[in-house]
Amino acid sequence: MTEQIQQSDLQDTVPRTPAAAWQRLREGNARFVAGESMHPNQDASRRQQLAKHQNPFAVIFGCSDSRLAAEIIFDLGLGDAFVIRTAGQVIDDAVLGSLEYSVANLRTPLIMVLGHDSCGAVTAAHGVASSGQMPRGFQRDLIERIMPSVLDTQRRGNHDVNAAVVEHTKQTASRLMEQSRVIADAVSKGDVAVVGVFYHLDDGQAELVHGHGTWLPSR
User: Fold this and answer.
1) Has 39 been labeled as part of a binding site?
2) Closest Cα to residue 205, out of 122, 82, 114?
3) Its GO biological process terms (predicted)?
4) How far is residue 53's CA from residue 105's CA, in Å, rounded to a whole number?
């Protein structure tokens, strides 16, 4: 009965502030880590409810890695999150347009940039920094966009791949603000917050590493 009540609460209340959205994601991740996922908003009635509209409370821009399924690691359901994924959470014009849509049209109060340890794209950039040999094709574009984070980390004497992932997550979150007036204005008004999160593959913990906004979550 308790679980049914809790699931009902999750379905009926949609966080509309950055703080409330972050709290919902933290709670979902805690359930996932503990092996107590509730799988809310995944039934037929939820599907029917969303047939003509959506009202997500967070937009999650993360790496395409198959182990980084946002709806699972934050214990979410249909309509809860607007999810965008590219290898190494690399920004391009389509990503920025999608993020702006979520803020301007869907009124989503929280943008999360989600990186993870042992990221293949960052590892590849790390290798290129050592060898100087770029991959062929469009993978080169990915490496070039990640390389500033790798080089900045190495200049500080840290050659750990995961340190570069954290730096890349931070720089990506900052770049959203720099490149998008829509996002920057929403953050300055307090309507939206941008957070950078580092996900640990082994234990499932989602760790806050960066934030922008008049409201900043506690760690």
Assistant:
1) no
2) 114
3) carbon utilization
4) 12
State the CATH number of the domain containing residue 28: 3.40.1050.10
Residue 218 lies in a domain: no
Full-model pTM: 0.91
**Does 43 count as an annotated binding residue?**
no
75 is in an annotated binding site: no
First-to-last alpha carbon distance for the chain, in angstroms, is 32
Domain of residue 48, residue span: 2-212
pLDDT digits (tens, 9 = 90+) for 21-64: 999 999 999 999 999 999 999 999 999 999 999 999 999 999 99
User: How many domains does the chain contain in total?
Assistant: 1
Q: Is 116 annotated as a binding residue?
A: yes
* Beta strand ranges found along the chain (DSSP E): 58-63, 81-86, 110-116, 193-199, 206-212
Q: How far is CA 48 from the centre of its chain?
A: 27
